[in-house]
Amino acid sequence: MQINAILPPKGRDLRLDLFRGVANWAIYLDHIPDNVVNWITTRNYGFSDAADLFVFISGYTASFVYARMMLERGFIVGLTRLTKRVWQLYVAHIVLFVIYIVSIGYVALRFGDPDIINEFNVAGLAGDNAIETLRQGLLLKFKPVNLDVLPLYIVLMGFFPPVLWLMLRQPDLTMLASIALWLAARWFGWNLAAYPAGTWYFNPFCWQLLFVFGSWCALGGAAKSRKIIDLPITLYLCIAYMILAMVMTFAGKFPSFGALFPHWLYDTFNPNDKTNLAWYRFLHFVVIVILTIRFVPKDWPGLEWKIFDPLVKCGQQSLAVFCVGVFLSFVGHFVLALSYGSVWAQIGVSAAGIAIMTVVAYYISWSKKQDKPLPKPAAAPAKS
What we know:
By secondary structure, the chain is an all-alpha fold. It has one domain (25-366). It is built from 17 helices and no strands. It has helices spanning 14-30, 50-73, 75-110, 115-119, 130-138, 149-158, 160-169, 171-188, 204-224, 226-229, 232-253, 255-258, 263-269, 279-295, 309-316, 318-338, 343-371. Helix 2 runs antiparallel to helix 3 and helix 7 (160-169) runs parallel beside helix 9. The longest helix is centred in the N-terminal third of the chain and has 36 residues, at 75-110.
């Protein structure tokens, strides 16, 4: 079958690192409840948030990295490299899972706060079903609070090899198939079962749409759509939708403001259906992608600005930074509970967490450089 996708040019795209760093910082801030600092994150001004960005970039990056490998070295090699990445993600999740639940249990016992066990959905580990709960955790069915994104990423990457194979040959058809699956999952209520009850917070049958959309954009979809993206009417429609999204988000957050709107309009967008990736949420993210493509090209000089270095570093070491951020969000939540959540404490916890994540990113980058062999000294010129 003929290859119809347009492979991205070789070389690192700093936009991916920058926005992945933004997503990691925002996820950390958003995971801390009653935190005034998380008002700077996008979830307060529109329908989509950092989770959408994280999943989209994951799909984009997976295609960016593995598409050329699959074409040059064969499907089997690409499959094995993707499988290796899935295993790395799974191991990272299990390590984070164990550290997370042990920390929650220790805090509950040390400070006599049993309510925190229920708050973070780890009560099953304190009863007679501890072994079964751990087994379900290994199967990704049991997830404490805030540990939902990584299992979603693992599942999406696990099923990505055949999707990538088809995307390289029929990108538009693959994108349409992804949309069809999303629509069918919403219509028929498809989702994966969670333990001990309920379903996954991030429905993989729906959230695969953002992952595949990222892949489609990476493999020529964005380039082929450039004429439409650059139309003036497209810009006006995008701005109008962003304003609508911000207004409706504020309406959901402030009941007195929401009461000003007709019920049919308010109820269309509130509550925001995150689990099944509501159409308005996906459209909001598409608009953000269009505006980014239009105003932040790959060669934008601002990507080299020193002020963005911490974000870029956190994006380059995304997996480790994400795991550290999730753990620190629990620590920050507990610290704020002890300090009665003053505004200065919220600012301090937020800044400290981001600083630690950044230090981790810089350390890992430095450590990787030390693992590389030193360049061989130049040979001395021969004497005549």
